[in-house]
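Let us work through a complete example step by step.
Step 1: write down the sequence.
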Amino acid sequence: MAWFILARLVFFVGVTYTAAVLQPLSAGALVNAVFGGGLALVAITLEWRMRDVSVPRLLGAILGAALGLAFADVVTGALLTTDDPRWMFLHRTIDLLFPYIGVVVGVRRGEWLEPTRLASLFRGTAPQRRHKILDTSVIIDGRVADICEAGFLDGTLVVPQFVLKELQKVADSADTMRRNRGRRGLDMLQKIQKMTGVEVIVSDMDFPEIREVDLKLIELARALQGKIVTNDFNLNKVAQLRGVGVLNINELANAMRPVVLPGEVMKVFILKEGKEYNQGVAYLDDGTMVVVDNARRLINKTIDIVVTSVLQTTAGKMIFGRHIDAGATPPAAAPDREDAKTRPRPAEPPAAAPENP
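Step 2: predict the structure and record it as tokens.
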């Protein structure tokens, strides 16, 4: 900061001394020194006010002033040159007007001189495609078709040729289960292609030097600057480590599941017995597993349970509860600690009078 003060002081003294020596005004040295000092103060004030102006705006002001001077020179050169005071005034007004307009417009539109704005001027006007690359697991899963039909997945869906080959191998498998899964995946692709508003393309881009399909998907997503749509946990982690965006269907499903709090009562259908003693297992409509204590004897029955805890894992959500016996009232949810401290305790009932013998 001291260097700036010293520079301004040297500039002020220099301009003042120059005006006092050269005397541009037809007056004494003192008047010219005051005149020079005033000009120096104006320049220093202008410099101080411009300290927060961005570089693109300064460049815009300089470029606008240069273009204004050039345009003013062209206009005044085309006019007649006479000694008429009105023509002289018009010349001087034009010489000042166009540079002033250039400076004002250059400062206001200086952000267009930023590198990103300049680069955008030379890009195509067509909107860029947002590619979503589908892997084999999410095609076989089938839920991506419902997501597309609901309109929550926009952009262009890309099905690589090597994914289609892998899907065809699954559909031609000797195992009945794998064959049905592969055929279901092909049916889902046809369903998505028939949807209106969804663009599906088959990419022939391949990477022969890479054998694993997951690594090929990552390289394809890099080449297309797109995201991978999957429900494979391992592919999700590897793609994130390599800086590729991933849309995980399982994470979306977990986010859309309703929130269940301990103390809530729900009705479930006990489907099978659990791993621990006297446990029963049920499933909600969204596939969430519910483990119920004291429900092993109630398999194939619909019962009321009270939620005791909720466990969130990477694979999904698990709900633990216990069976409410018939005729018993469900326990109320435990009050918060803060409420328990401030809430008055209920009065104890009076002791019953002893009966007369």
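Step 3: interpret the result. The chain has a mean pLDDT of 79.
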